[in-house]
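> example.struct
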């Protein structure tokens, strides 16, 4: 049975095109993927990403224990720091990528992908030692507001201190929303568990500043029961500024322009962190599951996830074969689209080591048609205007 977020009825009322993603019925688009994509780049968009897995992990020495399961040394970072990290199997292969927020030395908040949530929870449960794992996926919603006009959009709702957060930091705020039904002291225990900074009055929410679109913005995590009133107030405020709801279709094209990985596509449990070109997410100065395998992998040539642009007219799609000029297969496309900002076909895919250098010419095949492309530096979109 497909899951639905607490904002499902809001999407239907806006005539969103719904589709199944990661076990959830989610909005693909409201107007069009291209229009919504450009609106996020030039203005600001709102996303319902409540389908993402959300977990609270608590216990004495929580950071030090949990950092053995991920590639970042959590205990080296202060409270309020959000860390993009990877969870690996013993062979160094990527189980999932996630954002881990340090609440305190005894509490961390984990956001993982929807489609891998059960596997991630099972992996943690069998290795968490004395830690307590609480699944908050259904209890908490997540509304992401992304784009250059984000602060203008949210100014009336959030404490000014939130805007001082730097990228990959989190805080706790009370949103100023008319009509909010205040929670009782007992009901607010979830907020106390996730609290960073001062609480204030209003709708309680954990707020992070990461941005899977590559744009500046905030992810707002309120109780699911409060999501609809927040969504409606944001829409009401955003109408005058052309700040529109945005579906997961544009979220995919936005992240691809910035070369961010997509679970189940750019990694699926068969590729190591090094092959996925994600060494930037590894702190080598601590022990973690899969470290030994990766250290051995570094010693030999290996496949690599590269970014490439079409030279000929064509749009790469997931699953297309990649070959060299002699039609020898050297890899496969994992993500691809027509870039709304660049106006050309872009993609990512795994190729053998000898074809991974920038400037290398490769071929991807669409049926019997062979389209020339070139390996380029990541990301495709170098600077957000």
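> example.seq
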């Amino acid at each position: 049975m497909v899951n639905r977020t607490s904002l499902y009825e809001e999407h239907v009322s806006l005539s969103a095109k719904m589709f199944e993603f990661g076990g959830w019925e989610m909005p693909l688009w409201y107007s069009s993927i291209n229009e919504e994509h450009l609106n996020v780049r030039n203005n600001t968009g709102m996303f319902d990403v409540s389908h993402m897995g959300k977990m609270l992990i608590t216990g004495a020495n929580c950071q030090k224990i949990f950092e053995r399961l991920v590639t970042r040394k959590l205990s080296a970072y202060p409270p309020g720091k959000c860390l993009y990290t990877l969870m690996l199997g013993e062979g160094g292969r990527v189980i999932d990528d996630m954002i881990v927020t340090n609440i305190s030395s005894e509490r961390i908040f984990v956001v993982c992908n929807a489609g891998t949530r059960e596997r991630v929870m099972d992996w943690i449960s069998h290795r968490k030692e004395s830690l307590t794992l609480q699944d908050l996926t259904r209890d908490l919603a997540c509304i992401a507001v992304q784009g250059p006009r984000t602060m203008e959009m949210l100014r009336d709702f959030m404490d000014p201190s939130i805007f001082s957060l730097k990228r990959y930091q989190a805080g706790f705020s009370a949103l100023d929303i008319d009509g909010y039904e205040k929670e009782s002291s007992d009901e607010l225990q979830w907020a106390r568990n996730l609290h960073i900074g001062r609480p204030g009055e209003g709708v309680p929410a954990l707020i992070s500043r990461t941005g899977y679109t590559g744009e500046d913005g905030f992810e707002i995590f309120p109780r699911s029961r409060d999501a609809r009133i927040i969504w409606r107030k944001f829409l009401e405020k955003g109408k005058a500024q052309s700040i529109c709801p945005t579906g997961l279709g544009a979220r995919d094209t936005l992240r691809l322009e910035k070369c961010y990985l997509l679970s189940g596509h750019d990694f699926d449990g068969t590729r190591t962190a090094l092959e996925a070109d994600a060494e930037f997410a590894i702190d080598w100065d601590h022990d973690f599951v899969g470290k030994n395998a990766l250290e051995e992998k570094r010693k030999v040539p290996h496949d690599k996830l590269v970014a490439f642009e079409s030279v000929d007219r064509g749009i790469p799609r997931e699953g297309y074969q990649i070959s060299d000029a002699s039609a020898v297969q050297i890899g496969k496309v994992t993500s691809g689209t027509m870039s709304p900002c660049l106006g050309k076909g872009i993609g990512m895919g795994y190729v053998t080591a000898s074809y991974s250098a920038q400037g290398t010419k490769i071929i991807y095949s669409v049926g019997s048609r062979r389209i020339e492309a070139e390996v380029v530096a990541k990301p495709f979109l170098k600077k957000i205007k």
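> remarks
Residues 58 and 132 are 5 Å apart (CA to CA).
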